[in-house]
Amino acid sequence: MMNEITPTRTTYDELAKQAGVSKATVSRVMNGDTKVHPERMAAVLAAVEASGYKLNRAARALSTGRTGLIAVVIDDDVSALADPFWGIVTSGISQVLMQNELQTLLLVAPLDSLDGPVAHYLERGEVDGAIFVQVHKDNLVRKLHKQGLPVVVMGTPMSKASSIPFADTDNIAGGSQATNHLFSRGCRRVATITGDVEASAGQNRLQGYKNAVTENGLEVDKGLIGFADWTFESAKTVMLRLLARHPDIDGVFAANDLMAIGAIAAIEERGKRVPDDIAVVGFDDSLMAQTHRPSITTVRQDIVGLGVAVAETMLAVIRGEKPDPKMLPTELVIRESA
Amino acid sequence: MMNEITPTRTTYDELAKQAGVSKATVSRVMNGDTKVHPERMAAVLAAVEASGYKLNRAARALSTGRTGLIAVVIDDDVSALADPFWGIVTSGISQVLMQNELQTLLLVAPLDSLDGPVAHYLERGEVDGAIFVQVHKDNLVRKLHKQGLPVVVMGTPMSKASSIPFADTDNIAGGSQATNHLFSRGCRRVATITGDVEASAGQNRLQGYKNAVTENGLEVDKGLIGFADWTFESAKTVMLRLLARHPDIDGVFAANDLMAIGAIAAIEERGKRVPDDIAVVGFDDSLMAQTHRPSITTVRQDIVGLGVAVAETMLAVIRGEKPDPKMLPTELVIRESA
DNA sequence: TTGAAAGCGATACCAA
DNA sequence: TTGGTATCGCTTTCAA
Q: Shortest Cα distance from A258 to chain B (angstroms)?
């Protein structure tokens, strides 16, 4: 019926005995209560030291209702983590949480229903907060938020008015940077290949493209927008179609690096050259952007920083604050493809 | 002092009242005890349904000493997760655990010391088990194992005799496959670029290379072994050095795809062609292997499967079994580079 | 500032 | 098979 790891676990009772104080005082010391007599405090600390005491978190959780756990929820199936983005973000989050004595509980599952297993788990109060990265439909997020669970979203909520705290890369600005770079190197017919526009990142990068087009005194031509889904294959297919319909395209902004590479594959398959005939810009500055030939001009985002920002937002929410959204800047990295 | 998510949480007491039975019976029903009268059982279940009851895991944890949490420990700093491998493995693990009502606690930190924060955390009994992926020094693992914490290692323990359960890709066989492929396509001077040989994967892939060399009736030439560390840059540097000393190299087995790409960069920089002058084989079958030009001939490993195997091994250990090590087969994927 | 004692919500023993 | 009850280890009133 008890924990088997240590044959006999030290408890407050024993510490109290050893230090000659009460359990209550031990608790006070353990929780940094300053109103404890220094000598008694020292005695308790000595007892802790001597016994190698380890706090039992389950007991504390039962008593306080707080678990010390923050869920990181990835709304997707297993394949999601194939994109290193999630791993990097998650470790950024984990790092910050750990420094604040919180642990990262990883939940990878499609959030389809309002009462799937993940939803139930989160509603049970088994975590002190939930960070959602990659949200498709945010009804679960809203529900939990309404129920009072501290919730933070990575990405920009689609429903503007929502009061749910979030942090995000400034994808709109990033999309503009990429597109403007193409214009400034002389492109006139600039197409874009979007990511999943159901996700805020996909939508906003597209918005950035549109903004840049109009800023350059042109009209947004819907024919130049190819909708894809972040994958190499989808981008290649879409690019082939764009080329067939608009042979005069001379620049492409792909919403991530993998799709930029897919676009390049299509372009070269049609016998054109990158960047001479068509310049291509990606997004992410992934490893692939560096190793591909031609290397990819791309928009770098600070992924670890994003994780950190999201985690810090969570900490603020837990402290009861109402943190402002954080937007992280992007940076254009010029290489060979544009 | 209480959980704030639901204003008033339903407890066994209330369920008992509603169902007209005792707390003890409620507990029995909740834990699937079959020796409960069907009618009472139905009554309890009805009460659960009606009240939207949610089990309080902290209370159970305090009472049973089990937390329902399994730690996945990645012995590295934040950058580790930049390699999608870890993310994929982790989600494979997470998937299996979730199906067994266990949650994944992610711990990303250098395991340098025997009493760093991670070590303390694990020793506290805050998890029911720990899965170590990527272990550099296994003294912490051994210590925890000795203390009775269920422990599983992903990878092959360096110290053979250890009784710690593990699962791994058969890296030795994979290394041989890659190397044999080079020989069978006519290469005579086959070099290798290793990963971190402090890690079992790096060591074993090298071993596979050596085995293949001798199987082909040749002597292992130490001059043909370039030690690198999984990165593009390290591989490129090492490859340049190998080429300078051994201009007759006509085949290279790189211990991962990224290094294969680094090697190709070096080879092409020296004005040679892949695969015509020098054939290159990688390992992992990552996205990059598919998108790179030339596309990379590589050894595919089942990464999700590895996560699943590791998680299932953990489940067995928790059940008190002594599971045999699992070795997952690899598969050669032939593309353009060799 | 300190201590005694009553919870927190489940489990599991012991009787019946 | 069932119920009563002690118990897990910590927190937090309430009095002193």
A: 8
